[in-house]
Design goal:
It contains 22 helices and 30 strands. The chain is of the alpha/beta class. The protein has a 7-stranded parallel sheet with strand order 3-4-5-6-7-8-9, covered by helices on one side. Strands 12-13-17-16-14-15-18 form a 7-stranded mixed sheet, with helices on both faces. Strand 16 and strand 17 form a beta hairpin.
């Protein structure tokens, strides 16, 4: 998708700043705002940004009623003439009134942090939003202009603001990011920020998923850049050539919406076709190796993979890249993703790398990276790596005497098996349990059967004969019918299905009925809560988890914190909130006491421990709550996102009002395809189905 707010991002988009304030230094005060807006449109402005509160340092706070009195007549008049209006405000009540008056975009210098109600309002309205980087408030921001690394800090803080917005239900395609020139940046920092635009753009081009976030440059006057001094013109700065038109920026000759290498879970694509070929893997190894060569110690990276044929092509290419950057490479062979995350920490490696496309078919492959702490890299760090991959690295690579060495870790599998077994409560064994284990012909085909058998289980293994082509083929967590049938055939107590890299798990009870990630989370949460093993009275899940889970947890005194879809966002929220249990409905379960990422084997062991202690069949023990009826449907579209349409926004608002407090509605763009995902859940299944049908019909009709 190459659009934001209905605009084609392959060209610069011009935003005219229309301040309707008596104390602004950028437009001469209140004046005739409508006439000035018309003049801006005639001069080529695509968007008119209307604000009624000055955000210059030391400016007085303007109450929302005064702010609305200033801007609403201007917005209504210009919107009636067809102008695209963004409202520049920090107040939710002003946002709502401005959108009702005809504004289409919300532009918030506080990135929806000033007013607790603003994120929910933007999510409910489904309107595009600009999230700006600013520390503190306009009155205090210049006292907080201290950065360890200006660009890196801004990217990290913008990433948090974006993730907070997504966790509140705001779609990825609706978000534009603004580095906030002049806001909490003083003097030469603004010049440094301009020099760092290529690094920022690598992140902004698509902070998550395979589409572009907007990239805004705040058009503040020169006094912002140098505390009252005039700044040198842009062409004097030693940066690459950029097309600059008020707000929207794109590198000359390169679309802002160009596909970004890193998606929701590393880099992924069809094997031997860019970006999943040896050339890109080599460059990735060089760039990541250079970025993580910090300090004087001997640097090392551990590389694991699943069972795809293409792993034999990508592994040596990555090895060449890392050794060329001066890093020693430790090859672990086929191992689950969580095993590599664990070994990265255990071996004090600087990086961990997994070559896997998880639950995808063998034709695909992927590369995901872990930092020294065993956690997946942040969007900001991935952006830095991608930016480095586009540079000439020849003069920065290691000399002949400083090349890295490659070696194989012969006991890698045994280390992980022992770590997984240690997650069971002391003294507990699996004797007497008959278990069907489906390893998806993937990375866990040796270690998972070994761990369960050594713990005493009677094991029926399936999906343990990989040949390079059969990973996830009719088996594993994405094809659970095979598991369910095997459980019934063998009279097993429970079935366990892992995916290709074993970071997720789905279960089947003794009746051959599936148990999803929400039920797994509920059961582990209840058991840990009863034993006092929860670090906080809460767990973390995504916006897709069933409302029934949230209600059940509330009934036993636990909170549910929701994040955007993706186990990396669950893990980040767990770290920030000091919570040791989180996961996704799809079966990613993170138990941070034992692992830094989703671990299907360790999650399954916790469920087996509960079954042994309770002495009840899985059909009883694992049905912890009754899910509310939930329906998810997708609507494909072409061109601008339908979510930018006032008619669709109105339809979503009406659906939310009809649902009220009896359920939940989530309308969001897909992170990987031109789809609008419509999910609703509530107590009345027929009503939910009608509601989703009506919204999908409205979105489809808008497309036609």
């Amino acid at each position: 998708m190459n659009c934001w707010a209905g605009f084609d991002l392959t060209r610069p988009i011009v935003m005219g700043i229309l301040n309707v304030t008596p104390d602004s230094f950028s437009d001469g005060g209140l004046g005739d705002a409508v006439a000035r807006g018309r003049a801006m449109r005639a001069a080529g402005a695509d968007i008119l940004d209307v604000g009624g509160e000055s955000t210059r340092p030391g400016a007085d706070i303007v109450p929302p009623d005064v702010e609305m009195a200033r801007i609403l007549p201007t917005i209504a008049a210009l919107a009636a003439e067809g102008a695209v209006i963004s409202v520049d405000t920090r107040n939710a009540v002003t946002m709502a009134a401005a959108l009702d008056a005809g504004a289409r975009i919300v532009n918030d210098v506080s990135a929806l942090r000033h007013d607790p109600g603003s994120a929910g309002l933007v999510a409910a309205r489904g309107c595009p939003v600009v999230l700006m980087h600013m520390r503190g408030t306009p009155a205090t921001m210049n006292c907080q202009a201290h950065y360890a690394d200006l660009a890196r800090d801004i990217v990290a803080e913008l990433a948090r603001r974006r993730d907070e917005a997504r966790a509140a239900g705001i779609g990825h395609a609706a978000i534009a990011l603004d580095p906030g020139f002049g806001f909490a940046k003083i003097g030469a920092q603004n010049v440094d920020l301009l020099r760092a635009l290529p690094r920022l753009a690598a992140f902004m081009r698509c902070s998550r998923g395979r589409r572009s976030c907007g990239f805004m440059m705040s058009p503040r006057p020169c006094r912002r850049f140098g505390c009252g001094r005039r700044s040198p013109p842009l062409e004097h700065f030693p940066v690459r050539v950029w097309n600059v038109a008020m707000n929207r920026i794109s590198p000359a000759g390169h679309s802002l919406a160009a596909r970004r290498l890193f998606g929701t879970d590393g880099i992924r694509g069809t094997a031997n076709i860019a970006p999943m070929n040896a050339e890109v893997a080599l460059r990735l190894g060089q760039a990541a190796g250079l970025l993580f060569t910090r300090g004087s110690h001997r640097h090392r990276v551990i590389i694991g993979k699943d069972t795809r044929l293409s792993g034999y092509m990508l592994e040596p290419a990555l090895t060449a890249g890392f050794t060329g950057a001066g890093m020693d490479v430790i090859l672990a062979g086929p191992l689950p993703t969580p095993a590599i995350a664990m070994l990265t920490r255990s071996l004090r490696a600087d990086l961990g790398v997994v070559i896997s496309a998880s639950h995808n078919k063998f034709e695909d492959n992927g590369i995901k990276l872990f930092g020294p702490d065993g956690a997946k890299l942040s969007d900001a760090t991935e952006a830095e790596i991608e930016a480095l991959m586009g540079e000439d690295l020849s003069t920065r690579l290691a000399g002949a005497r400083h090349l890295g060495r490659a070696s194989r870790l012969v006991d890698a599998a045994g280390r992980y098996v022992e770590a997984a077994k240690a997650s069971l409560p002391r003294g507990l064994r699996l004797d007497g349990l008959r278990i069907v284990l489906d390893c998806a012909n993937g990375a866990a085909y040796k270690v998972a059967p070994a761990a369960l058998w050594e713990l005493g289980a009677e094991l029926i293994p399936i999906g343990v004969n990989p040949n390079g082509f059969n990973i996830n083929e009719g088996c594993g967590s994405t094809a659970p019918d095979h598991l369910c049938a095997a459980v019934l055939e063998h009279g097993a107590h429970i079935g366990i299905a892992l995916d290709g890299d074993a970071d997720r798990v789905i279960l089947a009870d003794e009746r051959g009925e599936m148990i999803d990630g929400d039920q797994i989370l509920a059961l582990i949460a209840r058991a840990f809560h009863a034993d006092g093993r929860l670090s906080s009275p809460a767990i973390v899940a995504t916006v897709m988890s069933n409302l029934g889970l949230e209600r059940y947890l509330a009934g036993i005194g636990l909170d549910l914190h929701r994040t955007a879809v993706g186990d990396r966002y669950v893990a980040e929220a767990m770290r920030e909130r000091k919570i040791n249990l989180g996961g996704e409905q799809s079966g990613h379960v993170i138990l941070s006491d034992f692992a830094t990422t989703g671990d299907g084997l360790i999650a399954a062991l916790q469920i087996l421990a509960v079954l042994i202690r309770d002495g009840r069949p899985a059909s009883e023990a694992c049905r912890v709550f009754t899910p509310l009826p939930q329906l998810l449907r997708n609507v494909r579209f072409s061109g601008p996102s339908p979510l930018g349409s006032p008619a669709i926004q109105h339809a979503i608002e009406q659906a939310n009002q009809a649902l009220g407090s009896t359920g939940r509605l989530l309308v969001r763009p897909s992170g990987t395809e031109p789809l609008i995902r419509v999910m609703a859940e509530g107590e009345d299944q027929d009503f939910i189905y009608r509601l989703v049908d009506q919204l999908c019909t409205a979105i489809a009709a808008h497309e036609s």
